[in-house]
## 1
Amino acid sequence: MLTVRVADKGYVEEYVWHLWNNKDINSGSNIVSLKLGVACSNGLFTGQTTYQGQEAVTEKWISVKSNGAGGSGIVDDANASFKAVGGALDDVDNYLSLGDMPADTYRQIYVRVEVPAGAESDGFTYPVLVLEYTLEDPSVSSSSISTSSSSSSYSESEPDDDFTGTDDDNPWGPRWEITDAAPKIISNRLQMDVGSGNVLEEIRSKWLTEGQFDVVVYYYIDANTDIDWWRIDLKAEPQDASNDYWTASRLYNTAYYAGGVHSFDQYDNSEVTLYAKVYATNALEGRLRLKRDIGGTAIRAYYWNGVSYTEMIPDTPISSSAGMKFILRAEVGGSNPSLDMSFDRFNHIKGTWAWS
């Protein structure tokens, strides 16, 4: 909690703190997808008193930056300038994104408090710094997943799926429906091989999630022909009357994205692109991620840059409060296209779900 003497109009003060993940313990979860922001003293963002910090939150009196880091495997954010923060963490303007933190590492956080000359509050006010993050188990990697034909260790009562199974099996029926062609389990991954005679393979979750969600899937490109276009999608499909849906994608398009990109796209139900935000890449394996924060409506998309998740921030923020189902798909187009790829480790990190 920060104690701010509001009576001192024009007051400026700076602090430097170390933010640790498991100090002096070199094993444990990685902290990923960190958001650093400011809330009122009770953790809420709106409707509170000036004494609880409401004016400081709304007017963003507090600015932060991350510059300096220590420990093995951490990459310094190296922020050159402060960012004013405050308000709900479903709006990118309200928080500072921090890079991933392995166990026994820290980030050096600079905090600046500036009380404007025209502040309405008087006496003292007590805003707090808040941190939202996800824990990720560093011991689980593609090389550590069993390649035997034993049944999946993922619970059948949950939406997570590591696609463990006997070669040529369908994905687990109670969890997924096959909505196009015939993707199969091969070497404990969900294999999708698409080409001129089979241009689309797709599965859709039989469960849906409402409110907060955070889903991640790994992808692997085994072979591809860069002719015309191909794409790999993690798609959120709203379960309401709206016509829009959203995809985090890895794609190639000769006409537009030669060399390949990660993208965050919004479509209408006739697959007309309403917008596309693209980031160049030649990665043959990676991760795609979609999320919606608790209490929020903003849809966010990320790709894995090899070290941490990079948010693909649209020019115009998008939102939906609808329940969502999720689709995994691979598609090609044009003359003589081909793409052999697989999905693995589909994880619903946060949120609740219901079986439909």
Note: Residues 54-58 form the longest helix (5 residues).
## 2
Amino acid sequence: MHEQSWQGELTRFIGRDAQLGRWQAHHPAPLTLSAKRLQLGPLKIGSEGHGSVQLQGYFLPPDRRSEAALEWQRLNLSLLNPWLAGWEISGNSDGSVLLQLAQERSLHGQLSLQGQARNETLAINLKQGTWLADWNGQGLKSSLSIQTDDSGVLSVDLSSEQNHAWAGPSRANSRPTEKASTFRNSAPGCQQS
């Protein structure tokens, strides 16, 4: 029996919000709908002064497999301010996240940012911040590095060797400036080694 499916394009996408601004699709995005496959993208949306975001992915209902990829460029960090109680941030970020859900689940991500974070008593000028993550059947490997404009440096490595460990890291290493210190039991479920 021939599978019925629909293939087309999302030809227009426009969204407006008082806090987030006006976003619209840069070009039509392919779209496929059937009993065995749902697929979108790439869908790239942008906003003047706020950056751009690209989304693509698929879902296979019979196999319960899915994949979603999200990429952003020059994303204005001030868009997050409505959800950050007591803090105000500014600057830009580039990055991507790839999530795969199947028999083996995985998450791969990277992010870079520059900007400023401030509250009533503290102001942090971020010269450069980077984050890398790889989470799969072998466990978690992730690193965060932050450089401030006053030559401060903080590096943090998070890891877990548990298979499909989605609950959190079991070990965190922090290196403020040149000295290294290891923190154990710094998160729920962390075990001493």
Note: The two ends are 57 Å apart (CA to CA).
